[in-house]
Structure formats: structure tokens, C-alpha cells
Design goal:
Residues 7-17 have a biased composition (Basic and acidic residues). The protein has 296 residues and is an alpha+beta fold. It has nine helices and eight strands. Strand 1 (115-120) and strand 2 (124-130) form a beta hairpin.
Amino acid sequence: MRSIRTASKEADRRKDQPTTSRRFSPECPVEVHKNVKKQPKFLPMGKGVPLAPLHCRLAHKLRLAIYEGDSANPRQNRFLKAAVRRVTEQGLSMHEAEQIINTYADTRTTLHRQLLQISCNRRIFLICTLRSVLTAELKSRLLPLMRSYNASFVHVMHNFFSSATIEAIISLQTSLDFSDLEGSITRDAIACKAQGIEMVDYETGAVNFKCDPSELETVLKAVTAKGYTVLHTEYTFKAKRCIKLDEREREEYKRFRTKLSKAHDFDKFYDNVAPQDIVVENGPDVISADAIVKAL
């Protein structure tokens, strides 16, 4: 049996042994990954800011033209008329151009759109963006419809891959080191708590700040406070697992979506229904493709 003194000496020797954590022994070559702090999602300062996809860059040209000309009608906005011609020459279809124009014309007065999450029959998950402010009065007004279709207001976002994008342009009020533009933008993204950034257009100084949908309002305020002019915000939701509906379920869900669509409060819908079962809503008739063609 060991004496207390012997056990104490052995304990002292173990203190001098290398540990498996750098927290206790900085010289130790052994690294345990579970003790390593999780790396941030931001790009390292030494690497360039990634360029946004082509479709995103072309959409920016249309939105910027509407912003500069203050009109979504190419007959009244020479900037938009020229932009439509340029983006279609670069590969954007006329239908896609129409959708971008319609969406931006409808949303540019309300940059931050609130979300309403709904579960229907406990297997259909629906996320809606709202034109109006989400209030108790709106939920109360929708309750009879919700009860009729066995739907409820519950958190369903964890069933989707999600992100939010803030498209902003550098203004005269933006404090940037233009000799190190990408580094300055990256530092701004970190300060604004954005999860990532993309360069949209070097000529116009357009940048995409990426964040979690639940943090859009916070990041939006921070980006604006930095002096950027926010042009557009957008949510992206993609179901982690899609479901198929039988004919009865599909017709019932279609009726539910149609009744929701008739309410002025709702803007866009995202769900987990398989693509062939998704109901397509008609967007706001700000301008038609025919009108764009005639204006060119």
C-alpha cells in the first residue's frame, strides 16, 4: 500500500508529463481537435473575396438600373432599358429579367421582410415572407383558415437549408481603404457579423453580405450604419427533405395556399413539397415581358 507521501511524489511527476491539450502545455506537439476553437466562416484576410455567380451579377445590373432611374418601366427609365438589353446579351432570358424586375419593384420599399412559419397536417412545412409587419392581429385573422386545414404556427426553419443575402453598394459615406478594397470589405463583414461575402460588381462597388435569416435585421442595420446603400435583401430556403402528396392531399394543400395567396400580407412561399407538387403563384403584375420587348 502506497503512503500519502509516495502518492504525492507520483502526482508531482505526472504534472511534469506532456499533456494532450495545448491549453496546459503550449510546447506540446500533440493537438486534440475537440479542444480547438471552431474556425470562423469568414474568408482569411490573405485570400480574395469570391465573385458572385453570373446570374446574381446580371440581376444586380437590373436592380441598380431601377434604383438609379426610380422606375421599373423601361419606357420611363432609360437606365433600365439599356440594362435589359445588356443582360439579355450576356445570357439572361427575357422571362428571368421580367421576374427580377417584378420582384425588385415589389420589394424595394420594404428591405426587411418578416417570416411566418407554418406546419400543415404535421408533415408540410411552409415559410412565408410578409409584406406587412407580423402582428398578433394578423395571426388572429388567419386562425379560422389555419384550423380549417389543420395548420398551426410553429417553428419549422430547422427543416430547411437557409440563408439571407443583403445586396449593398459602396457609397460616399462608406469608410473604406480603396487600396485594399477586398480586405476592407472583409473587415466590414466581420464587424457586421455577416457569415460571408461575395463581390458582385467592382465597377459599381456592389457586395453581397450573407447571414442567417434570423439575423437579417441585425446585420442589415450594421451594414447601413457602415455607410453602405442597401439595394436588396433576399431569403433562400431549400427543404432538407421533400415529401410527395397524394391527390387528395395535393388538392387540399393547393386550396390552402390559394387562400393564403389572396391575402395581401403574403409575398413568397417556401415549402418541403416535392417540385412536381408545388403550386406556382402569380407574381405582382408590375411589368410584363411583352412590355419589355416593345420598349427595346
